[in-house]
Amino acid sequence: xxxxxxxxxxxxxxxxxxxxxxxxxxxxxxxxxxxxxxxxxxxxxxxxxxxxxxxxxxxxxxxxxxxxxxxxxxxxxxxxxxxxxxxxxxxxxxxxxxxxxxxxxxxxxxxxxxxxxxxxxxxxxxxxxxxxxxxxxxxxxxxxxxxxxxxxxxxxxxxxxxxxxxxxxxxxxxxxxxxxxxxxxxxxxxxxxxxxxxxxxxxxxxxxxxxxxxxxxxxxxxxxxxxxxxxxxxxxxxxxxxxx
Length: 244
Fold this sequence. Notes:
The chain is mostly helical. The chain has helices at residues 15-21, 29-38, 68-78, 81-101, 108-130, 137-147, 154-168, 173-188, 192-205, 210-215, 218-224, 226-243; strands at residues 12-14, 49-56, 59-67. The chain folds into two domains: 12-101, no CATH class; 109-243, no CATH class. It has twelve helices and three strands; from the N terminus they run E-H-H-E-E-H-H-H-H-H-H-H-H-H-H. Strand 2 (49-56) and strand 3 (59-67) form a beta hairpin. Helix 5 packs across helix 6 (137-147) and helix 7 packs parallel to helix 12 (226-243).
């Protein structure tokens, strides 16, 4: 896909983002929302969708938070290739949530809470390792060095850790970097490449230069999202502890 379809922490997406991705006529947005969302007898306000006001191009308009199930339904109504792509994306997101927790009966909100709880448990475990026996010597020193993720230069911290991992594994830095991104996509239920394309499109629409647009990368996406940044920092720590 050329644009991002963001899934927030409550497992909902934006009707406006979906409408734009489906390449539907901009002038028909309000009519489409009323017909397919507000007047839809099979999906209920407060359960499947929630409307809210936004400002777009200087004008106040309306957007809607949609459940993944409702979003998939709207994709099928479009009867287009873009609709099929969006629906497959939503299906994949659901699969990532289920694969992450291996507890399909959990709600999306519970899954997000489980991710945060698991991350906190990993942090606590690392801290306990740091405080253990002096016999662990070099390992403890590595863990202590890895724990310090509140550096003013977060990217420098990440690159130093991944460079050390690559060196310990034979020097293939790109492979380590790719592995770290794959782990983030699995744990964070996200598609980084899709988010990169969406950020580039937004910058282009805002008048960004070609150089600025070309420079956008996956670290930009991670650093701009507090949840992804936290999960990715833990992944980098784990890799550093395991291999250095």
